[in-house]
Design goal:
The structure holds 2 protein chains of 2 kinds. Chain A is about 55% helix and about 10% strand. Chain A has one domain: Winged helix-like DNA-binding domain superfamily/Winged helix DNA-binding domain (Arc Repressor Mutant, subunit A), CATH 1.10.10. Chain A has 5 helices and 3 strands; from the N terminus they run ααβααββα. Chain B has 8 helices and no strands. Chain B has helices at about 5-15, 20-40, 45-85, 90-115, 115-130, 135-140, 150-175, 175-195. The chains are: A mainly alpha, B mainly alpha.
Chain lengths: ~120, ~200
């Protein structure tokens, strides 16, 4: 399966970096560095992206139609790119959150206890 | 690490990224690195980790394709060995057909996984490199070296490479066939129509 199709295929789970990128864009529109910082903060340092890794992921999300690139701000550096979550992206994120909720409910129903 | 050195190192890393990514995002990636370096809240070791992360992802993408290609190459070598050593009675033509099918499959799998023709060609290329071990293997294990001189060896190898890569290209272009099948279908229909109207 190509990497764009893995985002659009219904029910397919998102990787952690992609999940956090979509999560950060669900709050507000952001540019690259803002996304990178938010992903690191919201994952408590577990997900640390490099610039190339981030933009590779953003390109795949753009190609899959889950995010959209905004027009560059004339007052900012023209190299700076900002992104917005699209309705399909929001739907995909909600589906992923539902999948996670179901997994937690299933784990609780089977009384699985995490060892500390 | 000074900003200038960081920018130089990063420009080198970016140069190895796929052309599609580089063409569109190289400037934005370098700007992001500048943002990280200028942010007083970002420790310098964090910047180094980000650069290493990018190198790892670059190598990882290439490496998985290489592993896939190596797997197909090993299968080709296996068929060659089974046929050569008569473990299983395998007709030469059948062996060649199976090997060709594996090269087509390598190109197809690589193209499907990566979504690009180049990805399929890369997997097929690695499969070809691994399967090339059959040439010295033929000599060392079965004392077979049917080449009269170095030129005939080079010429035969060159033809083998071309044939193998044609099979790989066939496989690698298959996933994208749906994009142009209508044109191919129209052309085939026009040819068939012209053929039927050919006067006796």
């Amino acid at each position: 399966m190509s990497r764009e199709r893995q985002f659009t295929k219904p029910g397919s789970p998102l990787t952690a970096p992609v999940f956090y990128i979509l999560l950060s864009l669900s709050i507000r529109d952001r540019h690259g560095y803002d996304i990178l910082k938010h992903v690191e903060e919201s994952s408590e340092g577990r997900i640390r992206l490099g610039p190339a890794t981030l933009y590779t992921a953003l390109k795949r999300l753009l190609d899959a139609g889950l995010i959209a690139e905004l027009e560059p701000d004339p007052e900012q550096d023209p190299r700076r790119r900002s992104y917005r979550l699209t309705p399909p992206g929001r739907t995909k994120l909600k589906a992923e959150l539902t999948r996670m909720d179901q997994a937690i409910v299933l784990a609780g129903a089977r009384r699985i206890r995490a060892r500390s | 690490m000074t900003t200038r050195w960081a920018n130089r190192v990063y420009a080198l890393i970016v140069a190895f990224y796929p052309r599609k990514i580089r063409k569109k995002y190289a400037a934005a990636m370098k700007l992001l690195l500048d943002d990280m370096l200028e942010d007083p809240g970002t420790p310098k070791r964090r910047v180094w980790m980000a650069l290493l992360n990018d190198v790892a992802n670059l190598v990882g993408g290439l490496r998985f394709g290489a592993l896939l290609g190596a797997l197909f190459g090993v299968l080709v070598v296996l068929i060659w060995y089974v046929g050569r050593s008569d473990i299983v009675p395998l007709d030469t033509m059948m062996g060649l057909v199976l090997m060709s099918a594996l090269f087509v499959a390598a190109g197809f799998t690589g193209a499907r996984r990566s979504g690009t023709l180049a990805g399929g060609i890369w997997v097929g290329f690695v499969a070809g490199l691994v399967s090339a071990v059959t040439v010295p293997g033929d000599y060392l294990l079965f004392h077979n070296f049917p080449f009269y001189d170095p030129m005939s060896f080079v010429f035969t190898m060159a033809i083998s490479v071309v044939v193998v890569m044609l099979f790989v290209l066939l496989g690698a272009s298959a996933p994208g066939f749906s994009r142009y099948r209508h044109r191919v279908g129209r052309s085939a229909g026009a040819f068939a129509g012209a053929w039927r109207q050919e006067p006796d």
